[in-house]
From TrEMBL:
Keyword Coiled coil assigned: yes
Coiled coil as UniProt keyword: yes
Record key words, sorted: Coiled coil, Membrane, Transmembrane, Transmembrane helix
Coiled coil: 32-59
InterPro entries associated with the record: DUF2489 (IPR019617)
Biased composition (Basic and acidic residues): 113-134
Region of interest called Disordered, as start-end residue ranges on this chain: 110-134
Transmembrane intervals: 6-25
Every DUF2489 domain range: 19-148
Domain of life: Bacteria
Name under which the protein is recorded: DUF2489 domain-containing protein
Length: 174
């Protein structure tokens, strides 16, 4: 092989490798950009999910405070949302632990279709148990709902309006 032939082959190899390296760099940078966009989208989605959870918690806490939802049902629903929000960290807060306590004591009670399918006597027995639980925890549930609403408001949630307006109560105020 002559020097001229070697130089031509070397020039051809360089001419082939430089654009290939440029294209590889372009692909690398594009993959990095896409990963950054995906991470931003995921963070935004997580932030929106947290915001939605806080808003739902504030609405439920307000409904419990205003006695627009059964206290036991409110505690059960709040406990599930708190678990989604902080993976059980709420049990470390004394003002929110009531939701977990009521959940632990009421989770065996039938709900939805299972409740409908119960014999009348069993349904009445469970209702008595639920009422006793609500009486036992009434003050703590109301304080917990108040603390939860304040927590949500502190996190930037806008206060909700009442879910339902009691027409009889509204008429008395006028």
């Amino acid at each position: 092989m002559t020097v001229d032939t070697a130089a031509i082959l070397l020039a051809a190899a360089i001419a082939f490798l430089i654009p290939l390296a440029g294209y590889a760099l372009h692909l690398h940078l594009e993959a990095k950009r896409q990963a950054g966009l995906a991470k931003e989208a995921q963070e935004k989605e997580l932030q929106q999910a947290r915001s939605n959870l806080l808003e739902s918690l504030e609405i439920l806490a307000r409904a419990v405070q205003d006695e627009q939802v059964n206290p036991t049902e409110g505690c059960l629903r709040i406990r599930v949302l708190l678990d989604l929000l902080d993976e059980g960290g709420h049990v470390l807060r004394k003002d929110l632990v009531v939701f977990d306590e009521v959940h632990q004591k009421a989770r065996h009670l039938a709900t939805h279709q299972a409740r409908e399918d119960l014999p009348r006597e069993e349904k009445e027995k469970q209702d008595q148990e639920r009422r006793a639980l609500e009486e036992q925890y009434e003050a703590q549930i109301k304080e917990g709902a108040k603390a939860l609403r304040q927590f949500c408001l502190d996190q930037g949630v806008k206060p909700s309006d009442a879910l339902f307006v009691n027409a009889a109560a509204a008429g008395k105020k006028a």
